[in-house]
Design a protein that fits this description.
There is one protein chain. The protein is built from 10 helices and 8 strands. Helix 5 runs parallel beside helix 6. Strand 1 and strand 2 form a beta hairpin. It is an alpha/beta fold and about 280 residues long. Helices cover about 35% and strands about 20% of the residues. A 5-stranded parallel β-sheet has the order 4-5-6-7-8.
Amino acid sequence: MSLARLRYRPFRLPMRAPMQTARAAIAYRSGVVLELTDEDGMRGLGEASPLPEFGEGDVDDVLGLLEEHAGALAEGALPDGVDGPGAAALRCALDVAQLDLDGWQRGTRVSQLLSEHPRTRVEANAVLGDGPPEQMLAEALEAVEAGFRTVKMKVGAKAPDEDVRRVRLLRVAMPELRIRLDANGAWIEGTAAETLRRLESCDLELVEQPVPVDATRQLARLSRDTSSLIAADESVSSVDEGRRLLAAGPPGPRGAPPPRPGGRRPARGRRPAAGGRGGAG
C-alpha cells in the first residue's frame, strides 16, 4: 500500500460513571486515533486503545512505539518482532486503518474485504457495570430506551449471591432483554458452575470469561457441562492460543477484541469474520 501520510492524535474520554469490573474500576477510556492517507487523498482510520487494567499497555506506550518506529510505520506496518505493551493495540489500529482505506479505494465495505458472505447486521450490546441493583436497572432501562436489545452485565467483583440477585432482578424487570454476563476471569471453576446452575432459569445468551485466563481446561469443561454458552475473551490473545482453546474441548463462542491478536485479519486466523460496516463507515 502506497501511503502519502500517517497522522495520529491521542484522546481521553471520561465515562459518564465509573464502570466497575472484577478487575478494576474504569473511569475513562483513552487511546490513539490513527489516520492513513494515500496519494489521492483518501483516508483510512484506526484506533489503538489498550486497556492498562488488563495488562495491554497504555497510550504512552502506543505513542512511544509510533515515535520509535516512525520510518517503518510510514509504510503502514510495525516491524516484525516488536512486542510488549501497546504493540498489539497499535497493530490493530494499523490493520483497521488499512482495511478502511482499502474499502474506500475499492468503493466497498470492509466486511466484504474480510468475507465472501458477510453479515449485513451485527448487534452490539450495552455494558452494565457491577453497581448496586438500582443503578444496574437504571442503566439497563437507559440502554433499552437508546435502542439496545442486548446487555452485558459485569459480574465477579461481588459475592456470587449478589450477582445472582442482580441478574434475576434484571430478568424479572425486562423479560425480553438478551442478557450476557462477563466475569473477567474472576470465578474459580466450582463457583462458576454453581452460579450458572442457579441462573439457568434466567435464559442467559452467553457467559464471557468465567474463569481465569490460564484455565483452558476448566473453560472447556464449563462449555460442556453447563447449559450456558461460554465465551472466551482474555484467554485468546493470539491465533495460537485460540487454537489451543479449540483443541481443549467442545466448540462454543470464542473470541477476543481485535487489539489482542493485532487486528481484524490476524483475528480471522481463529474465528469466523463478523460482517460489519466499513469502507465508507
